[in-house]
Amino acid sequence: MKYTLILLSFFSLSLGCKTKEKEKSFDTVTYEKVKENLADKEKDNPVNFLSVESRDRKNLFGQTVVKGNIFNKATLCTYKDIEIKLSFFSKTGVKLDEGIETIYETIAPGKSTKFKTKYFAPKGTDSVAIRILKATSDLPASAK
User: Fold this and answer.
1) Is 66 helix (H, G, I), strand (E, B) or coil?
2) CA distance 135 to 116
3) What is this structure's pTM?
4) Whether residue 125 has pLDDT greater than 60
5) DSSP state at residue 37
């Protein structure tokens, strides 16, 4: 009885190991299809993969200086010529003005770029909000 139990344990462990080996096999074709699908999503929706952080201040000439970083959260797609919208708000939240600016930089996947812009903001401006409108996407040759 003792030997039977040991033999059953041994066989169940050996079967379990073979099952795990099958799970570890890598399917290159499926991986490439997923990669192409991801590349298409990143190329078609740059706004979903780009984010922006900024801060603003007034300079001696009365201009509003906006400094910020644009981050590329994509894994395959490089973006360039990023168009941003700056909205100027009063203390009470009223939108006073807005402007569109293009950042002529290239941002590789997982990287970021700094930008700086100056505006003569409307009188009464308390804050500036920035939103990414669009960008041009560049896929590396290996992902096309």
Assistant:
1) strand
2) 18
3) 0.70
4) yes
5) H
Closest CA to 62 of 112, 8, 3, 121: 121
Q: How far is residue 70's CA from residue 91's CA, in Å, rounded to a whole number?
A: 26
Which tokens hold the place of 78? 């490089």
Q: Distance between CA 90 and CA 128 in Å, rounded?
A: 9
Residue 109 near residue 101, CB atoms below 8 Å: no
**Cα–Cα distance between 41 and 44 in angstroms, integer?**
5
Report d(CA 39, CA 77) in Å as an integer: 7
Residue 102's CB is within 10 A of a number of other CB atoms, namely: 14
pLDDT confidence bin for 141, thresholds 50/70/90 = very low
> What is the tens place of the pLDDT at every residue in 50-90?
999 999 999 898 889 999 999 999 998 999 999 999 999 99
Among 52, 46, 103, 47, which Cα is nearest to 76's? 46
